[in-house]
Structures are given as C-alpha cells and as structure tokens.
Amino acid sequence: MSEEKKQDYFPAGEHVSIFLRGKTWYCNYQQNGRQIRKSLGTTSKKEAILRAQRLETELARGEVPNQIRIATLSEVIEAFLAHAVAEDRAAKTLTKYRHVTREITQLAIDRNVGRVDGLSVRFADAYKQSRKQKGNKPKTIYNKLVILRSLTIFAKRRRMVDQDPLEGYQLKKPKPTSQPCWTPDQADQIVHAAPTTYQSYFSFLRETGCRAGEGKFLMWNDIRFDTGVILIRPKQGDWGSWRPKSGDQRAVPITDKLRALLQSIPNRGAWVFCAPTTKKFPSQDRQLSERRALLALKGVLKTLTLPGKLHTFRHTYVSQALTRGVPEAVVRQWVGHVDPAIMRLYTHIADDVSQAYVSRFSGQSPDSNAS
C-alpha cells in the first residue's frame, strides 16, 4: 500500500478532503475525472479546513482552473535533452546530461517513481547517497545534483508539473581541494619525457594555461602571428561543433617561446595538433585524441612518480603566473574562467612568495625574528 493511501483523510466539504503530509496540510479532490492533490501551504489544521472549504466553493462555481497534467519522468528527460541539443550545449555537457539522466531513470525505476513530481527531496537524498556508494567525489555528486535540480526547474517552466518538487532544495557546494602543481623543472621533465607525438601539445598547454579541449580544437586559422594572439573561440565544420567552456571566448598572447613552438609544428591541414597516422587511419590531418594524450601523460607521470593530469598544466600555469607577480585580473584574462575558490588557493601561494620577497627586500630572512 502506498504512503498516500495510509494517510488519514478529513472531509472539508462534499468534494474536498484534507490530509497531513509531514507537517503540511494537503487537499484532495476530483476534477475532470482526475484526482488532484496539492499543498494548502499551512501547518494549521484549522486554517487548512478553511482553505479547503473555499476551494470547495470555487469548484462548485467552476472558478478553479484545470490542473496541469503531470508529465512522466521519461517525457521530461526527453524534452530536457532535446532542449540542451537545441541550445547547442557542448558535446561534453550533453554526454554528462545523458549519463546523469540514465542514473536518475534507473533510481526512479528502483523506487517506483514514474512521474516527474516524484523527484522529491527524499529522492534527491537517495540519489546523493547512491552516488556516494559508487565512490563519486563530492564535487562530482554536487554537479550531478545540479543537473537533477535543473531537470525539475525545466519541468516547471515547461508546465510539465504544477509545482517544482525540489523547490527550496539547498545544494551545498563542496570546498575545492588543493590541486597538484608542478615546478618549472618538473614541467620540463614531463614534456621532454613525453612521446614525440604529444610533446608539442603538452608544451602548448604548459605555455598558455589553456584547457586540454582548447588545445585539441585549436585550428591554424585561430593563430594570428601578425597580431600576436591565439583566438580561443567557438567553431564548427563537417566534424561537428565546439565551443569553449562557459562560452569563454578570449585572445591568448603569443610569447616568443610560444611563437617558436607553434612555428615548429608542421601544418598538416585544419588542426594544429594531430593524431599519429596508422594503417587504419592514414590521414595526417586527424584530430588529436584527448583520451590518448591523457594515457600518454599518465605513463610519463608514473615514470617520474609525479601526480597530475592534463588539467594540471593549467593549474601549474596559473600558479606560476601569480607567484611571478602577474595580477590576478591579467591571469584571468589569459586563461579565461577560473573558479574563484580555486583562484584563492593560488593567491595564497602567491601571497607566501610575496612575503618572502618583502622579507628579502627588508634585509632579513622570512624565518628570522626581529631584534
């Protein structure tokens, strides 16, 4: 027997009854052959009866509008994904949406939830717990809950549900964890120890602080040697479309070292960084694989016993720029969006280095005590 059938119903009139769910009173009535249950927005039984009686009068006069048909969860997910495609969301974002909605669908099946109004706070808590049991990290769980929250907001805006089942649900963003950063010498070792195929790609990430995907989708017509900048911008072609994270369009300055690096790369077609040729894929203008680049990097890091991933090139660049005195605003202009909390971690590093310079300038070591 369902939880709702176990509720005690109290008649408030000929057609409307009330029942308590948690601490809030709800009403129950029939309209156009459908059973309607909705919150009365009060914890007082006396007030609930009065509101239900007013509803009874409005029903008799035909003043209560027809309720929105509550959509099934599959209908909402299908519309949500179609909308994301129509909005030209990034391929990685679409992949993430599909993955999370599959997880939500499976949990809904396990919990016998068929309609979108079943995505309640209790459901969200169960989903969160299931992701913990799967070993998802706090930031990953938070991002997945954001997608779940977006799903119910989308359903409400599209009038696929009369009330947002997660209205008021609070998401607590986890504190950022310290990210590994390499020293300049370590970054040199990584690039030099990398397979030849990926050395230029790794050098580019190190010299620009660009995201791995921004390097992967870099095209020769994005590089303006005459004006000394690299354009990080959306693009599309026969291969599909791509755009920077968060719509982050910007111009990256070309240093002398970066210019020499780019001019040393053979121009094989549209892409700057190309995958190696094979018997199966003989084309020289085949886009580099980010996954294979990561595997190559992991092999190098294992040999050098260093932590990190492709994104660590970006963290290292930001950290080194700040410690060398580049203003935070300029660093943001160069690398684009950086989570403010992550930036504060790097700012602390820069502050420590700055303090060391102040102590050196004043003629005493940072660890010495004033006489």
Which SSEs are present, and which pair or pack?
Layout: E1 10-11, E2 17-21, E3 24-31, E4 34-39, H1 45-61, H2 73-86, H3 91-110, H4 121-133, H5 138-157, H6 184-193, H7 196-208, H8 212-216, E5 223-224, E6 229-232, E7 235-237, E8 240-242, E9 250-253, H9 256-263, H10 290-304, H11 311-323, H12 328-335, H13 340-362
Antiparallel strand pairs: 1-2, 2-3, 3-4, 5-6, 6-9, 7-8
Helix pairs in contact: 2-3, 4-5, 6-7, 7-9, 7-11, 11-13
Question: How would you briefly describe this protein structure?
Answer:
The chain is α+β, with helices and mostly antiparallel strands and 371 residues long.
Strand order within the widest beta sheet: 1-2-3-4
And the CATH topology of the largest domain?
Answer: hpI Integrase, Chain A
Overall CATH architecture of the largest domain:
Orthogonal Bundle
- CA-CA gap between termini: 80 Å
Contiguous low-pLDDT stretches (5 residues minimum) are: 1-5, 365-371
DSSP E strands, number: 9
Rg, Å, rounded = 29 Å
The helix/strand class is: alpha+beta
Strand content: 5-15%
Amount of helix: 40-55%
> What is the CATH class name of the largest domain?
Mainly Alpha
- Give the number of helices: 13
Mean pLDDT: 87
CATH superfamily of the largest domain: Intergrase catalytic core
Give me the strand/helix succession: EEEEHHHHHHHHEEEEEHHHHH
